[in-house]
Fold:
Amino acid sequence: MGQKWAGCHLLRHRPGPDLTSDWQGYCSLISVRTIAIAQIVIIEMVRRKDVYVLLFLTGVVTLVLGSVDLFGDAKMARYLKELCLTLIWVSSLVIAIVTAARQIPAERENRTIFPLLAKPVTRAQVLLGKFLGCWAACGLALAGFYLFFSILSGSREGSWPLASYLQAFWLHWIFCGVVAALTLLGSVVFTAVSSNATILFVVVSGIVLLARHLHKVAIKTGGASGKLLDMLYFSVPHLEWYDVRDLIVHNWPRLDWMVIGQDTLYGLAYASFFLLLAWVRFRRMALN
Structure:
């Protein structure tokens, strides 16, 4: 009887598996695989020539900004600065959409998705790695854009509003993250890369240019049409909030960092939502 009780006592206090250590190891393995996929995306972007062409074109316009002096008119420098920032936005939109749109279709077309998933790597890790790689690639391109722009603009105007530049860069990067996540969602819905990219260009451009006016139009319209416009206004991601070019062009004071934090959480929430929808679609999609 004593031996039986002693055996039960030992069984009750037998050291079990270290769940904390196992969970940490599993998370570490997931992060390593995801980061490896993201690095491949970044290397692919570095090897392509389209990014360098966009950087070169933006650099040319920025150099024109640094050398312009038309009758000492400061407004001309502002106009050119706005033109340069517009070119940066267009270039970043091209990089974000084109880079993200070809990730999954290229893996399927080249049939490299099968050895990739046989590592073993889950589809969620593939999708997350592709997103992080596209987002990091956009960040690297934006860093080059804004660094070059800041140096020449500051040397021209004699002022260095680094806080404003940092806020503009950060919000712009969050914008690219939302666009990349939305594009990945489109890449598992639409079959062709060209159709996905075209639709995303139209949708994102429409949101940036028109979304801010939907609520005003809804109030003036009224009725069922006004309610539909209001529903559309409150459902679409307001990407226009991340466009703070006027902050730099007119040398306005920087934004409150609390606003930057709220916009960051808002953008990350939408990016996560789009990635979740993309994963739901991707996990059920036939790859052959």
Q: What stands out?
A: The chain has a mean pLDDT of 81. Residues 110 and 153 are 44 Å apart (CA to CA).
